[in-house]
Amino acid sequence: MGNLLVKKPKITEVDRAILSLKTQRRKLAQYQQQLEAVIEAEKQAAWDLIREKKKQRALLALKKKKAQEELLKQVDTWLINVEQQLQDIELTSKQKAVFESLKAGNNAIKAIQSEINLEDVQKLMDDTDEAKAYQDEINAILGEKLSTEDEDEILAEFENLEAQITVQDLPEAPSSEPSLEEDEKLDLPNVPTKAPVSAKTKVTEEPLLA
Hints:
Blueprint (H helix, E strand, L loop, with lengths): L12 H39 L3 H60 L3 H26 L4 H22 L10 H5 L14 H6 L6
């Protein structure tokens, strides 16, 4: 597993050009710093020579300083050109990436469209139109005003269905009489064995007081 080879990314001509420009930019920046240091040194030398009353040598130092300043301007121009070219390459690369994305998207659309059969689409549209026309016809029929005879027939059918439903919902009658065991389960009072005595009879049987 550890010996698997990692595929290196392919280096293109654009990559080489960008690398070369960045290298030149770095070298030019270093050259700028060197020229600025030389210019500053020549300026200091001229200053010192003037104080020492050495006019010719001071003028020579100033001429060297001037030459270095002109060279520095040229380096600045080169550096601007390198920066501009790097920006152009970056912009062009982005434009290419956008173009490739648009191209891939267009190819995907064409591939999807190629999978769609125009005849199937037309048939689907026709079926949809037929279904819509059929539904419109049903809506038109339902929207028409019914005659008195039709209203009576519908009401009679409704009442018939309502009566059938009512009969079906009634509880079913018992199919046989309850058994003796079921009677024994009922908690009924005992039947009296003697006839009840009326209150009037009870009064006459009591002895009279003297």
